[in-house]
Amino acid sequence: MAEQTPRRRALVTGARGLLGAELCPALAAAGWQVLAADIEECDITEPDAVRRFVAECQPRLIVNCAAYTAVDRAEAEPDLAFRVNRDGAANVARAAAVVGAALVHMSTDYVFDGEKAGPYTEDDPPHPLGVYGASKLAGELAVRETLPNHFLLRTAWLFGHHGPCFPRTILARARAGQPLRVVNDQIGSPTYTAHLAQAICAIVEQPHYGAYHVANSGACTWYDLAVQVLREAGLPAQVTPVTTCDYPTPARRPANSALDPGKLRRVYGLELPPWQQAVAEFAARWRREHEPSRHPPTPPPAPGGP
Fold first, then answer.
1. What pLDDT is attached to residue 171?
2. Is beta strand 187-188 parallel, antiparallel or unpaired with respect to 9-13?
3. Burial class (CB in 10 A: 0-12, 13-18, 19+), 21
4. Looking at the domain that runs over 6-165+189-217+257-273, which CATH code has it been given?
5. Is 155 helix (H, G, I), strand (E, B) or coil?
6. Is 132 a catalytic residue?
7. How far apart, in Å, are the Cα atoms of 117 and each of 114, 256, 258?
8. Strand 210-213 relative to strand 187-188, pairing
């Protein structure tokens, strides 16, 4: 493990979120001195507060995991979505520039419109369909314009153990015996936070700055993902495939937002495992946390016994 010095000091914003909570221990294990900050410690929408906080921390690396991620609610709260995802990203980038820190900024597959027949590459022109995607694209542009030494990482369909996500929702509904109707005409790249965190740790070790698509390999529909999650978790539940029209939402979703991670493989030699393996690892950990022990504890000896 590398020595923890100021040159190995990393600040993670959004540190208690789905990705941030997975990333902080991964960076620490990779030899970074990790400074974890959430909205209480560092509200990225407050430029003066961000500048002061970063100046006090003096990190060499900032990973911005803080974001407004409520895709449907963003349609009714566009000002808030842009304040967090665009202005917040700009605030973090400016603060990073002042202290000379590199920045990892997390973005999303929803910057694309889903009209492409195959997976999206970093060179494909973005065209978001909704407020969430538009606000994240605006954040990307703010980072590009502010800080040369940045990694812009787009990921997709994130799932893990430290917050709400699609697989956890499916498992909770299945355990409760609730009906499961899942969209089967939207395609994407499910990404496990544990694998994404390890990839970020590897990426930041080499300053090949720029945009990368970082997702588990392969693609599937939400229905495929639900079926795979239930199979790996050992929960017998019936899933009914439906169309996007059968399941209307306030925000339009891209029909295809699969990401091509080829650039990451070419530049870094990195390739995340297939999404099916990611689901298997997620489900195995979920079972350990939710299934009662098969071996009850040995009772203590009766009073007066040996």
1. 96
2. unpaired
3. buried
4. 3.40.50.720
5. strand
6. yes
7. 8, 8, 10
8. unpaired
pLDDT band at 90 (very low <50, low <70, confident <90, very high): very high
Distance of alpha carbon 81 from its chain centroid, rounded?
A: 17
Q: Are 189 and 259 in contact (CB under 8 A)?
A: yes
Q: Which of 68, 120, 132, 223 is catalytic?
A: 132
Token pair listed for 224 = 């495929």
Q: Give DSSP secondary structure letters for 101-128.
A: -EEEEEEEGGGS-S-SSSPBPTTSPP--
253-271 mean pLDDT:
97
Q: Where are the domains of the chain?
A: 6-165+189-217+257-273
1, burial (CB in 10 Å: exposed 0-12, middle 13-18, buried 19+)? exposed
- For the stretch 159-199, pLDDT in tens is 999 999 999 999 999 999 999 999 999 999 999 999 999 99
